[in-house]
Amino acid sequence: MNDELPFKNILLKVSGEALMGDQGFGIERETIERICEEIAAIVSLGVRIGIVVGGGNLFRGKDVKIADENRVAGHHMGMLATVMNSIALHDGLLEAGLDARIMSAIAMPEICDSFSQREARKSFDKGEVVIFAAGTGAPYFTTDTGAALRALEMDCDALLKGTNVDGIYSADPKKVPNAERFDEISHNEVLEKGLEVMDVAAVSLTKQGNIPVVVFSIQTPGALFEVVNGKGRCTIVR
Ligand code: UDP
Question: What are the residues whose beta carbons fall under 8 Å from the beta carbon of 232, sequence distance 6 or more?
Fold first, then answer.
């Protein structure tokens, strides 16, 4: 293990959208392969890593029509989307030569293990990559909150949020070209300014656990490796 590394136990949140590549929907094989190779490069540094993946490339609870009557059904479908993405990532990690397992917040024993903090920690200690599927297991939450929760439970020293922007801006940089970009910002400022980087529950949890959140673009090849090495373009919330 390189002692210079800023973070040695990380929780990586991969947005569902990051997996669809240029397709506009679904899972792109090349993107999965690239991300998994980048994860393998980090593991070879001795970094322990847990992963939470979103589901937005397949399904979001609030997007479904039947959810007008029964919103919980939509959220259940969203959580199942995160399980599908987790299976794809797990496959990619095995291909990349890593030891990996999926632990789901919703039991589905024919497909993967159920989440247990104790078992997850044992896997972490063995150097296995653990993918935490199905978010928090409860409707109305997001996978960002799931990631914050697992980061606390796994005693991680950072939550890395890999998304399609290279940091936190005062407004959406695609819509507001002169939006201010932050290199560093506090959890309180994110909450006070109402910045839409993560939902309030996720920011509150990471603030409570004193866990820095590093927002970077996982679309940029090599960015993950640089961020883990304390370099690269990102915003740090601490
Ligand atoms: N979801 C949920 N509980 C959770 C995590 C996720 O109900 O703990 C549902 C929610 O409907 C959400 C969907 O799963 O819209 C997909 O997750 P998310 O939107 O966080 O995915 P991302 O935007 O990161 O791809």
Answer: 216, 222, 223, 225, 226
Work out the end-to-end distance of the chain between its first and last CA atoms, rounded to an integer number of angstroms. 24
pLDDT in tens, 159-218: 999 999 999 999 998 899 999 999 999 999 999 999 999 999 999 999 999 999 999 999
> What is the DSSP pairing of strand 213-217 with strand 235-237?
antiparallel
Atom of ligand 1 nearest to the CA of 60: 15
The rounded mean pLDDT for the chain is: 95
Cα Rg of the chain (Å, integer): 17
Widest distance between CA atoms in the chain: 53
Domain boundaries, the chain: 9-237
**Atom 23 in ligand 1: which residue has the minimum CA distance?**
56
pTM comes to 0.96
From residue 30, how far is each of 35, 102, 119, 135 by CA, in Å? 9, 21, 31, 24
CATH fold, domain 9-237, is Carbamate kinase (3.40.1160)
Pocket test for ligand 1, best of 25, 51, 71, 79 (most atoms within 8 A of CB): 79
